[in-house]
Design a protein that fits this description.
The chain has one domain: Beta Barrel (Porin), CATH 2.40.160. The chain is built from two helices and 19 strands. Strands 1-3-4-5-6-7-8-9-10-13-14-15-16-17-18-19 form a 16-stranded antiparallel barrel. A two-stranded antiparallel sheet has the order 11-12. The longest helix has 19 residues. The chain is globular. It comes from Gilvirhabdus luticola. Keywords: Signal.
């Protein structure tokens, strides 16, 4: 551990020294990690290259929350067991999270991105989230090669965050929370990192993308009981994004993520950073994979407040996302339909998610905002249909383009669970206060 820490510090200092020599820290075809990156979705397609020499940009984020949330369920005294009695929680600070980003301009139109979670809810120790290789120009092979095509084309390859839907561009990615006007992500948090490639074509506001991945979060060559090492996933996105006037911007996209058989699908459970709502609606102990009874902690119950429909081995999901911004007023919506099953199930099940958020940004540089979001999930489970509803209200202030303070009120309710389940008539509500630094 000490050797790893020393190595990490050495790398950070070395890369920082390299970056100091450059006054302009921005790269080509790059989404800024600060306030300028808000409402940016796919990385912008720059037409002019500023590449001169290999350039390393070291960045990162640090985020901390104070949580004042209460929870309860409707399990009667007669039905109470160790599996449905709630763990007591109070008001205090959560674990501070941190990211380290390395972005490297390797050649004209060629860039690498690597993100490491230095501290996260599920992994207090550093670990690599993922990275990718992005190509926007082929001059590194031969000057002028397919120049007319590459004006509009981008290729991304790596073990990376899949571009399914637009909600993942606004979500908090561990400590990178400056793009998110709220503290929590969606209830069904569509996010995964898989080995694959994505091919983009962006022209006159139109966006097209096709991608393929191996459908696996945890990479391995070991064969499962069916004799396979994994499977495959297909991704696609089609949309339009345009600044129609000085005051009005319109964007609408539709996305697809589908698999045949995969060893284990993680579309709604891949985020190892964990939920922002710590320890809500969990029991004091639970049985782990080895069959041992262990004490519940924020680390081993890191998805609290989220929902996974359980489509473990087969899934097809479609998401539509409208985005409208008129002056300081913006609307972002999510409409998601998914179906799938585990290998032990004979029939597929369905789940739907709706979310609508309205944000009003104001001030000389829109450095203040007020927001509200309604999020609803319905899913077919083996015991019946469940409904989960969440309301969020938020307010935020950018002290600088790199520093954000925000406060959120959240109220989430569960319906449709059996009367001996920990989620039976469950709910949690209260305040979250979050401070974000991103550079």
């Amino acid at each position: 551990m000490k050797t790893t820490l020393k190595s990490l510090i050495t790398v950070i200092l070395l890369m920082s020294f390299i970056s100091i020599n450059s006054q302009n820290r921005d790269l080509d075809n790059y989404r800024a990690p600060d306030k300028r990156g808000i409402n940016v979705f796919e990385a912008p397609k720059d037409t002019v290259s500023t590449f001169e020499i290999v350039k390393v940009r070291v960045g990162g984020q640090s985020t901390l929350q104070f949580q004042a949330v209460d929870h309860e369920n409707g399990v009667s005294a007669a039905n109470q067991t160790e599996d449905n009695i709630l763990q007591e929680i109070g008001y205090n600070f959560n674990l501070a999270t941190a990211n380290l980003d390395l972005d490297v301009a390797l050649a004209k139109g060629v860039r690498m991105h690597l993100r490491t979670y230095l501290s996260s809810r599920h992994h207090p120790e550093p670990y690599v989230k993922g990275g990718y290789f992005q190509i926007d120009n082929l001059d590194f092979i031969s000057e002028g090669l397919l120049d007319n095509l590459m004006k509009y084309t981008t290729l991304k390859v790596g073990h990376m965050e899949n571009n399914y839907g637009d909600a993942h561009f606004r979500r908090s990615d561990n400590a990178q929370a400056i793009y998110n006007p709220f503290v929590g992500n969606l209830i069904m948090d569509s996010f995964t990192t898989e080995v694959g490639a994505e091919f983009y074509y962006q022209r006159n506001g139109f966006i097209g993308m096709i991608g393929f991945s191996n459908g696996k979060l945890n990479q391995a060559v070991v064969k499962g009981s069916n004799g396979k090492t994994g499977g495959a996933a297909f991704l696609a996105k089609l949309g339009y994004d345009s600044q129609l006037s000085e005051d009005f911007r319109f964007r609408l996209t539709g996305s697809l993520y589908t698999t045949g058989y995969v060893a284990s699908n993680y579309l709604y459970t891949a985020d190892r950073a964990g939920s922002r709502y710590y320890s809500v609606l969990v029991t004091p102990t639970f049985v782990d994979r080895s069959g041992e009874v262990v004490r519940t902690t924020a680390t081993n119950n890191f998805r609290t407040g989220r929902f996974d429909p359980g489509f473990r081995n087969q899934i097809t999901a479609v998401m539509f996302n409208p985005f409208l911004k008129y002056q300081g007023l913006e609307f972002f919506g999510t409409l998601e339909f998914s179906n799938g099953k585990a290998s032990s199930e004979s029939d597929t099940r369905k789940a739907t998610q709706f979310a609508g958020e309205v944000i009003y940004r104001f001030g000389a540089s829109e450095n203040f905002f007020l927001g509200g979001r309604y999020n609803k999930v319905n899913s077919e489970q083996s015991f019946g249909d469940v409904d989960i509803d969440r309301v969020q209200f938020s307010a935020g202030y950018f002290l600088t383009k790199n520093i954000l303070a925000k406060v959120e009120y959240v109220n989430q309710k569960y319906d449709g669970y059996p009367d001996d389940n920990v989620f039976y008539d469950g709910k949690f509500n209260g305040l979250m206060i979050e401070a974000v630094i991103s550079f």
